[in-house]
Amino acid sequence: MYALVDCNNFYASCERVFNPSLQGKPIAVLSNNDGCFIARSNEAKALGLPMGAPAFKYKQFCRANGIEVFSSNYPLYGDMSSRVMQILSQFTPEIEIYSIDEAFLLLKGFELQTDLDSYGRQMQQRVEKWTGIPVSIGIAPTKALAKVANKIAKKFKDRTGGVHLIDSPESIQKALKWTQIADVWGIGRQHAKRLEALQVKTAYEFTQLPEDWVRKQMAVVGLRLQQDLKGIPTLGLEEGQKSKKNIATTRSFEGTISELSELEERVATFANHCAQKLRAQKSAANLLVVFVRNNPFDPKVPRVRRHLAIPLAYPTDSSIHLSQMAIKGIRALYEPGVAYKKAGVMLSGLVPVNGKQLDLFQREQPKHDLLMGVMDRMNKRYGNVLKIANQDLKRTWKMKQEHLSKRYTTDILDIIQVRS
Questions:
Q1: Is the sign of the CA dihedral 104, 109, 114, 117 positive or negative?
Q2: What is the C-alpha separation between 54 and 307, in angstroms, rounded?
Q3: Handedness of CA 224, 228, 234, 239 (dihedral sign)
Q4: Are strands 163-165 and 102-106 parallel, antiparallel or unpaired?
Q5: Pairing of strands 2-7, 135-140
Q6: How far is the C-alpha of 297 from the C-alpha of 37, rounded, in Å?
Q7: For residues 103 and 314, which has the higher predicted lDDT (pLDDT)?
């Protein structure tokens, strides 16, 4: 059996833990640079605040409806997530942290010794008591069905209490008939449209399709999902923490940038950030992508969005080499007179740094490895004091966070003071 534990309105719940006056009030959390809404409490959803809506367009709407707006407080959210996951690990040694607010737990054999419904409620009560974060829990024979059970636990909280168990063929069929095909975990938008066109409206109808058809149309991934929904475990826990397949650093500028020299400095900085992430997971990149765009919300100018993919001569994690390639890319993309609002660098084709393919005629400057090691140790100890020469040494990029709450659990200066 699998349990899917999902923190309810996680970002909003984190804000409420340290500010109880927010209970019952609509809350919305903004993306990096306070750009758009990435999280909403149930109260904000009920008022009609759209997901992904630009903040500047809904500023008056939030004021008129009393919506409390917060900047993303990732240090706080990350620390609270870690606390929740540590508590869940007390219930089983086999756990997959699926996202910042979700985790799969393998409860193999637990049903022989305990009532899983009661066990789920113990998890729920302990997490909320020890962290203040409310969670919903779905328990079922497979991961895909645990996702379905979790949706039911949330949707019908008055009846389920936030915990729902699917443990029989009858309960599986009932849950699948209730679940719309577009809401099935692993069914993308295009597959959902195709299935709906074939009058496959529910998850149950999907499980009744011929396996040969599913394999042909949706490959082996779709077939595994179908088996999982039938109650046949095919999707196991992901073991360990996987390295990222792509690494990106993208930023919206506070204003706009029209000068090439400023864009070069920005993408060089982004490439350096990406290189630091590469080295942290002991990977090297084979491909670098640079992109720029102007303000998509400005109706007075035509939309400009350009990108360039640069194959690297050899896999590298060097900040020096990657920043040089990023500058080369931005020079090719630059158009005089365009007011750019956002730029970014993405690294792809990642391979283990110790297993990269060498080139007979071109290779990394051997001194780079030693230099990057010194940079990483110094920056970790003293806080990003070393930069590469094509970065602005006096410039420190700071995210726009006009509605940032305190870092109650990660900054000694922000810890709540209790007075008698």
A1: positive
A2: 23
A3: positive
A4: unpaired
A5: antiparallel
A6: 15
A7: 103
CA distance 87 to 150: 19
Q: Are 339 and 295 in contact (CB under 8 A)?
A: yes
> What is residue 240's DSSP assignment?
S
Compute the radius of gyration of the chain from its Cα atoms.
24
In 10 A of CB 321, how many CB atoms? 20
Nearby residues of 156 by Cβ (< 8 Å), 6 or more positions away: 164
By the 10 Å C-beta count (0-12 exposed, 13-18 middle, 19+ buried), 187 is classed as: buried
Average pLDDT over residues 83-111: 92
Task: Please tell me whether residue 301 adopts helix, strand or coil conformation.
Answer: coil
231 in Cβ contact with 169 (< 8 Å): yes
- 343 or 296, which is more confident? 343
Handedness of CA 265, 267, 271, 273 (dihedral sign): positive
pLDDT band (50, 70, 90) for residue 135? very high
> For the chain, how far is it from start to end, CA to CA, in angstroms?
48
- Give, to the nearest 10 degrees, the angle between helix 74-88 and helix 10-18: 100
pLDDT digits (tens, 9 = 90+) for 136-174: 999 999 999 999 999 999 999 999 999 999 999 999 999
**Residue 103 amino acid letter:** A
- Helix residue spans in 235-314 (DSSP H): 260-280
* Cα(362)–Cα(354) distance, integer angstroms: 17
**Could you give the CA distance from residue 176 to residue 207 in angstroms, rounded to a whole number?**
9
Looking at residue 351, its pLDDT comes to: 87
Count of Cβ atoms closer than 10 Å to residue 152 Cβ: 22
Q: Pairing state of beta strands 247-257 and 305-316?
A: unpaired
Q: DSSP letters along 337-354, please?
A: T--EEEEEEEEES-EEGG
Query: Distance (Å, rounded) from C-alpha 203 to C-alpha 45?
Result: 25
Is the pTM higher than 0.90? The answer reads no
Query: Looking at 77-134, which runs of residues are DSSP E strands?
Result: 95-99, 102-106
Structure tokens belonging to residue 199? 């009058």
Strands 95-99 and 163-165: unpaired
Spatial distance between the Cα atoms of 365 and 122, rounded to a whole number of angstroms: 56
- Give the model confidence (pLDDT) of 340-382 as tens digits: 999 999 999 888 877 555 554 555 667 777 888 888 888 777 7
